[in-house]
Write a structure and sequence with these properties.
Blueprint (H helix, E strand, L loop, with lengths): L1 H12 L16 H13 L3 E4 L6 H12 L3 E5 L6 H5 E3 L1 H10 L11 E3 L1 H7 L5 E5 L7 H12 L1 E4 L4 E4 L5 E6 L7 H5 L2 E4 L5 H11 L5 H15 L10 H14 L3 H6 L4 H4 L3 H8 L9
Parallel strand pairs: 1-8, 1-9, 2-5, 5-8
Antiparallel strand pairs: 3-4, 6-7
Helix pairs in contact: 1-2, 9-10
Length: about 290
């Protein structure tokens, strides 16, 4: 149903019928692929949530690769301000140049440095902008971006110049749900929650990273991995990236399937909290299926 709606939307709006379907190194579900295509077609930011390790951040790289577009990344920090994504005026450098007689201090433009959004707006070609972990910043951060995201333009106050997007960039935003985002901001986004992969989907992901690992070993690893995630005592559940690393460690050490049936080698690759390791060692029953 979603595929049909997306196809008709592209046809009606006159978009290129090429679609995102994942890449050779990024396994995207049909639902995720379609929501990416819908966001691109509607020219709205795509807000992605999901627990750590579900591929939120690397999705932007996969979309950029699939669409052969440049990727500009903005890693948001707790101290980040919305202005930084547009441009930064380096007043300190201008002051130093003025004091030491270096540089043309009358040319303010040379002290203006465009941020990821600013670069995307000013570029002659379409690009992809990843705003990564937007919920790390202050609660006002998303609201401060609303006008620019709607208008696709911004003013550089120091020069009186206006930068307007020549091509509307594709904007992907990730959130770990550390803070609630403002309703006004959410209304302007397409939203998708990436569910944790089920065993069959996880097998496909593992084949990308470990194409030559024996099938029975992969199945035993999945059995132990999903059992581990079900243990209520464990607060930080292992993610896909931990599973990929764990299988790599097992293969490198030559750990057998029989060994995996009895114990969990390299537990520190899967669990990153001492309290979780101690809780597991306290004794949970061995898994029989996933």
């Amino acid at each position: 149903m979603i595929e049909s709606l997306s196809w008709h939307l592209r046809s009606f709006m006159g978009f290129d019928m090429a679609t995102f379907q994942g890449t050779s190194t990024y396994i995207a579900s049909a639902e995720l692929s379609e929501i990416v295509n819908v966001a691109v077609d509607l020219q709205k930011p795509l807000l992605i949530r999901g627990e750590p390790g579900t591929g939120k951040t690397v999705l932007a790289r996969a979309v950029a690769e699939a669409m052969s577009l440049p990727l500009l990344t903005w890693h948001v920090k707790s101290s980040s301000k919305a202005q930084e994504g547009l441009y930064v005026y380096d007043a300190v450098q201008r002051l130093n140049d003025s004091r030491f007689g270096t540089g043309n201090v009358h040319d303010i433009k040379q002290y203006i440095k465009l941020g990821p959004l600013g670069q995307a707006f000013s570029a002659p070609h379409r690009s992809i902008v990843l705003i990564d972990e937007i919920d790390k910043a202050d609660i006002e951060f998303p609201n401060d971006l609303l006008h620019e995201l709607d208008a696709m333009s911004f003013a550089i106050h120091e020069t009186g110049e206006t930068v307007a997007a020549k091509q509307r960039p594709i904007i992907l935003i990730t959130s770990n749900a550390e803070k609630e985002l403002p309703d006004a901001f959410l209304r302007r986004c397409i939203f998708h929650y990436i569910s944790f992969p089920q065993p069959e989907e996880m097998k496909s992901i593992l084949r990308v990273h470990h194409p030559h690992v024996e099938e029975k070993l992969v199945e035993q690893c999945l059995l132990r991995f999903y059992w581990l995630r079900e243990q209520n005592e464990i607060r930080k559940k292992p993610s896909t990236s931990e599973l990929v690393d764990w299988i790599g460690a097992l293969v490198r050490a030559g750990v057998s399937i029989k060994c995996l049936e009895k114990e969990l080698p390299f537990l520190g690759v899967l669990l990153k909290k001492e309290s979780d390791i101690q809780a597991l060692k306290s004794g949970a029953k061995r898994p029989t299926r996933y």
